[in-house]
């Protein structure tokens, strides 16, 4: 009986030993010499070496309408870096950058520039308020593109802030006695129609359970591509 008890008492230890043996061992990551060598050479030659190259080949040697040697170094750096990053298994990080952070880094300056341009398109003349026929013809395609930008790019919140800022600037300028010219009117009407299209898009897909589950954020604005893959492509 004692032998049996000893065997039973030793079972947990033996089981733990078997689990340790069967547990998958983490592979030791090797030193990525080729990656770090390429990045080091790139940084020293194309970044640190750029001002040295500009000393050897001064800016005065290049025509004003042509890039200098420093500009070429910048262009080569921007071309080489993505190919070096292909050696890194960072799909999730790149996906986050492309779908979220990259959109904000691109569209925040874009809307700031649009807002600055919009605020300058006001004058004392009331004759400039009328938008020409060419502007009305471009209003539909422009609004449709901004709708695609706000929905597929998932920047509806940022677009709303830009529109509210544009609306505030318009009221402020009109109180100063300034009237919007044709360019200002075109931008404002384009953003207004875009806002209407986004509202209709959300209302149309408001009761879609699958898209509701996929887009649970503060702004429920499904992507057109998701709607296409879910309702159009699968039906064919």
Distance between the termini: 72 Å
Radius of gyration: 30 Å
The string of secondary-structure elements, in order, is HHHHEHHEHHH
| Helix content bin | over 70%
Task: Tell me what portion of residues adopts beta-strand conformation.
Answer: under 5%
- Please list the strands of the largest sheet in the order they lie side by side: 1-2
Number of strands: 2
How many domains, as an integer?
A: 2
- Main sheet specs: 2 strands, antiparallel
3D architecture notes:
By secondary structure, this protein is mostly helical. It has two domains: 56 residues; 134 residues, no CATH class. Helices cover 72% and strands 2% of the residues. The chain contains nine helices and two strands. The longest helix is centred in the middle third of the chain and has 29 residues. It is flat and about 55 Å long.
SSE arrangement:
Elements: H1 2-22, H2 33-56, H3 69-85, H4 91-119, E1 122-123, H5 133-152, H6 156-175, E2 179-180, H7 182-204, H8 209-214, H9 224-232
Antiparallel strand pairs: 1-2
Helix pairs in contact: 2-3, 4-6, 5-7, 6-7
Notable characteristics:
9 helices; two-stranded antiparallel sheet; 2 domains; 236 residues; flat
Quick summary:
The chain is mostly helical.
């Amino acid at each position: 009986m004692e032998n049996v008890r000893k065997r039973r008492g030793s079972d947990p230890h033996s089981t733990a030993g078997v689990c340790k043996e069967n547990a998958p061992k983490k592979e030791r990551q090797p030193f990525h010499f080729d990656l770090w060598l390429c990045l080091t050479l790139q940084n020293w030659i194309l970044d640190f070496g750029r001002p040295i190259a500009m000393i050897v080949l001064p800016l005065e040697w290049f025509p004003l309408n042509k890039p200098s040697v420093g500009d070429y170094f910048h262009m080569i750096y921007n071309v080489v870096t993505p190919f070096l990053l292909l050696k890194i298994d960072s799909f999730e990080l790149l996906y986050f950058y492309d779908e979220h952070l990259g959109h904000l880094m691109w569209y925040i300056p874009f809307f700031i520039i649009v807002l600055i341009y919009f605020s300058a398109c006001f004058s004392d003349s009331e004759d400039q308020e009328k938008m020409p026929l060419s502007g009305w013809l471009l209003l539909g395609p422009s609004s449709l593109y901004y709708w695609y930008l706000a929905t597929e790019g998932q920047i509806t919140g940022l677009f709303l802030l830009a529109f509210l800022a544009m609306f505030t600037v318009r009221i402020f300028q009109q109180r100063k006695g300034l009237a919007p010219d044709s360019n200002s009117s075109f931008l404002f009407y384009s953003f207004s129609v875009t806002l209407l299209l986004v509202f209709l898009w959300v209302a149309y897909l408001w009761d879609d359970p699958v898209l509701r589950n996929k887009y649970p954020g503060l702004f429920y604005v499904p992507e057109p591509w998701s709607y296409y893959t879910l309702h159009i492509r699968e039906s064919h």
